[in-house]
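For consistency, the fold was encoded as tokens, which produced the following:
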Amino acid sequence: MNATNTKLLVVITGASSGIGQATAKLLAQQGHPLLLLARRMEPMEALKLPNALCRVLDITDRKAFEAAVKEAEEKFGPVDAIVNNAGIMLLGEIAQQDPTQWDQMIDVNIKGLLNGVYSVTSGMVQRQHGTIINVSSVAGRKFFPKHVAYTATKFAVHGLSENLREELSGYGIRVITIAPGATETALLSHTTDESIKSDYQNWKQTMGGVLSSENVANAISYAYHQPQNVCIREIVLAATRQGP
């Protein structure tokens, strides 16, 4: 567990649904004050979590991200951890996909994540303490049909996390990558190709279901609540019957 009994501030992006929402609920139960960030306010406020500051945020807006973190720290004290969970998945064959969808995924999945890292790192370096948790995907380690641009962004998350860990380890800062397989979230709803959605539903049924958001939240909590001198560098998890 953390070095003291005082629960410290955790920032969670993409907190309005799925993995972000499940993680927010779990960490709130454990007593952590939270900064919850997402594009939609209503689902975050509907959670009615104690000691939670909810803010509407486009994570590609670096200055707004920094301002939200500053506001939360003034209210709850320094950020102890950030869960960079927000992401977008737009699938399609590379020859047919609208290239603006590549731009969207690069902006959110890579640049937005880096904005989260940037907003907390200087304070963590000064305190020589903190944890950065980047939610990636199994698609950051292997390839899937019609995933070219999405996979590129998730390989980037794995790569920058490895490099970031090397850079920050001397300051006592942990960098953790969480790589879930198929998970029951709203992520696929972003995809505009209806045939991909239909194929996914059929695939999901053949293996008896996928991970729940709570499964992933539990993995995040487990890694985070190790002693600060223990860094679980990466957790890859998937439904048992998920082959690829």
